[in-house]
Amino acid sequence: MSGTVRLRPAGAPEGASDLRAFMKVALRRWGVVGAVAPSSAVLARALTTVVPAMGTPVVVELGPGTGPVSEGVRARMAPGGRHIAIEIDPSMVAHLRRVRPWLEVIHGDAADLGALLEAAGAGRADAVVSTLPWSLFPGERQARMLAEIGRVLAPGGAFTTVNYLPAMPLAGARAFRARLRAAFDEVLATGPVWRNVPPGVVYVCRRPAGGVPRRAAVSG
């Protein structure tokens, strides 16, 4: 990476291309996307507060979509860090590689995170950032993905993700929050982030519990 850059302003040339790519996949694979619009820059900043601004960190992004949160990671991450994005949809992979060539995109499933990082020659992640639609995933898949995230996090690393407000009362979202509390010793809720469509609550998770339920410090 050549250095720290600012988020692109609204109306940047990539914006129209990003929106077209997002809508194409959202209409075809709602169960994978789970959002009605790309993440806002405000949500991206909230999710990326855990990205190290010093050293040579490894930052992993799950479900980058068209890349708005990728821009947030890039804006914050220390020069020389490694930014890896795991994306399951092949058309999104192609889009990201075309419009964001600085991003290291791996085509794969976040449920195979450990194996994907090992194949890429990456050690543990200093931060994992996700906008995956957790409430749409079956319980077993949620548990497997959280276990993988906990397994790859470096000591002192953190995981951030979002629950969208309209989904909060749903059984899948409630189950996900319970699994977060079981998977991490500390789960802190921040927000809501109102300047996003839809608004969402950001969860900052630290100290993986190794799959053993513990009393977590939970706000929200």
UniProtKB/TrEMBL annotation:
Keywords: Methyltransferase, Transferase. CDD domains: AdoMet_MTases. GO terms for biological process: methylation. It comes from the Bacteria. GO terms for molecular function: methyltransferase activity. InterPro entries: Methyltransf_25, SAM-dependent_MTases_sf. Residues 59-157 form the Methyltransferase domain. Pfam families: Methyltransf_25 (PF13649). This is Phospholipid N-methyltransferase. It comes from Sphaerisporangium krabiense.
